[in-house]
Here is the input.
Amino acid sequence: MEEKSVILEKAKKEQQLGNYQKSFDLLEQIFDIEDYFTAFEYAKILYFLKQYEKAIDIFLTLNEKNKEDRNVIDFIIKCYKENNNIEDLFKFVETKNLIDTKVSLEIAETFFDDKQYKAAINFYEQYIEKNKDDINVVSKLLQIYNFLGYKQKAIGLSDKYLTDSQVQDNKFLYNLFLNEQEIAQEKTILKSNPRIMLVMLTNKCNLRCPMCATIHQKNQWEISDEFKQYILNNLDNLELITWQGGEVFLYKGFKDLFLKAKENKYLKQIIITNGLLINEQWADLITQANHLDLTISIDSIEKDIYEKLRFGASFEQLLKNLECIKQCRIKNSSNITVTMRTTISDENIYTLDKIVDFAINYNINVLIWSPLIMEENKQYSLKNKSDEDLVVIKTNIDNALNKAQKNKIKIIYLLENAEDILNERKKIKEEENSKQETSFKQECKAEYKCSNTEDKNDNLFMTSEKRSLCFRPWKQIATTVEGKLRPECLCLQNIGDIHNCKDFEELWNNDFMQEYRRKMISFNQQWCCDNCKNNIVSEEHKKFTCW
Ligand SMILES: C[S@@+](CC[C@H](N)C(=O)[O-])C[C@H]1O[C@@H](n2cnc3c(N)ncnc32)[C@H](O)[C@@H]1O
Ligand code: SF4
Ligand code: SF4
Here is the structure.
C-alpha cells in the first residue's frame, strides 16, 4: 500500500478537481480518528458529499481535541446550517461561547433565514458591537427590532445612527433610519419619504390573456410626465421598485427610468413582464443591472396551452428570448435573478415537475406558483379536487420541490397545501364516524375547539410588545391597474389617482395615508383585504422590504 501521506495528497488533489467520490474512496483507506489531518480531510469530503451527520460527528471529535481550530469550527457551523439543524447549531455556539464576530454574523443570518428573529437579534447585536460601521447590518437589526415591536430599542438605535456622519451624509441611509424611527414612534405624518414603489407604467399590452383584468379596461393609459418626475424625484430614497404593466416595454419612458434607477446602488428593481418584448438590446441592458429581479410570466411550458393562456403570444419567441437572456447573463457575468411566475390552474397543476426541468434549462433561479384569480376574486383552489387527484398533485409537487432544491431553485408556493387538505378530509371522516357516539362527547369536542382558538389569540397578544399590523403605509406607494394609488396594491382604500392628482408630493401625508397609519396602529383592518386579514399575506411581506 502506498504511504499514507501520498494517498492524502492524492485525495486533496481529487477534491480540488471536484472529484469528491474519488477523494472519498482514497481517504476511506487511510481514515484514522487519532490522526488529526487525515480525519479533518475525511470529514471535509463527507461535507462535500452532503453526508452532514457523519461529518459533524468527526468534526466535533476534532473540536474536542483542538478547541482553537477555526477551520473545524467553521465546518461544524456549515454542516449544521446545510443540514438545517438549527437547534444543535444554537447549542453548539452557546456552549462554546463563540463570540467571534464573523461567526456571530453567519449565525445571525442563519437564524434570520429560519425566521427565528429573536435568536438572530442576539448575534446581530454581538456583531455590531465590534463592527459599528457595518451600516447594512445595523439597518437590518433596526428593521428586525421594529418587526418584533421592540420600539424603544429601535428608537435608541436610530437615534444613535441618525447623528453618525455615515448616515447623515447619505440621503438613502438617512431616509431609511428616519423612516424606521418614525415607524417605531408611530408617527402618522412622516418626514421620511417612501422606500418602496410599485409602479404600473401603462395598461397597454401586446397580449390579451383571457384571465387578465388589464385587457378589460376601456381606456389605454400610461403614466403622465408629472408622475414620472415624481418617481425620479424619489429614486434616491428607494430600496425597492417594481415595474409592471400592461407591458413595461411599451412605455416609451421606461428606458430612462430604468437607467436612472440603476444609478442608486441600494435600489433593487423588479421587472414583471411577459418577456416577449425583451430584444437583445434590452436583454443586454437588464443583465448589466446590479440588483435586479426579472420576473417573466410563463403559464405553461407546452406550446398549445401557453398560446391559449397567453393570447397573441408565440412560444417560439418566448424560448428565443429566454435563450438570449441566458446568453447575456453569461456574457455580462450578471448577478440578476430570473424568476418564472406561473399562474396556477387546471391547465398546469399537473406539470409542476416539468416546469422545474424547464427552469433548470433556462437557468431560472426562482419559481412563483400563485393561484389563478377568477370572477368575484375567487382563487383557484385544490379543495375542489378528489382525493385521488390530490394524491397525484401532491406527488408531483413533492417531486418538483425535491428537484428544485437539488438544483438550488427557490420555489415560492402560494397555493393551498394538498397534504393539509387530505389530512383535513381524513379528520372530518374520522369525526363523522365518531358521531355515532353520545351527543355529550360532541359537546365536549366543540368546547375544546373553542377554547383552543381563544388560547391562540391570547398568545398573539402576549408574545411581544404591542406592534402595528403592517408597515406598508409607512413605506410604500403603489399604483393599481386602473391608475389608483394605495399603500400596497392589496389595500382596499385608494389614497389618490394618478390620472387626476394635482400634487404627487402631497400624497404621502394626505388624510387617507394618515388614516391608514392610524388604523394599523390601532389594529383596525377595515381597509385591509381578506388575504391580509387572514394572514395569507405573511407578516414579513407586511413589514420587511427586501428580504
Ligand atoms: C397583470 S400582469 C402584468 C405584467 C406582464 N404583462 C405579465 O404578464 O407578467 C402581472 C401578473 O399578473 C398575473 N395575472 C394576470 N391575471 C391574473 C389572474 N386572473 N389571476 C392571477 N394572476 C394573474 C400575470 O400572469 C402576471 O404574472
Ligand atoms: S401579458 Fe400581462 S398584462 Fe398583458 S394581458 Fe397578459 S397578463 Fe395581462
Ligand atoms: S395589511 Fe395588507 S391591506 Fe392592510 S395596509 Fe397592509 S398591505 Fe394594505
Observations:
- The two ends are 54 Å apart (CA to CA).
- Residues 472-506+515-543 form one domain.
- The chain is about 55% helix and 10% strand.
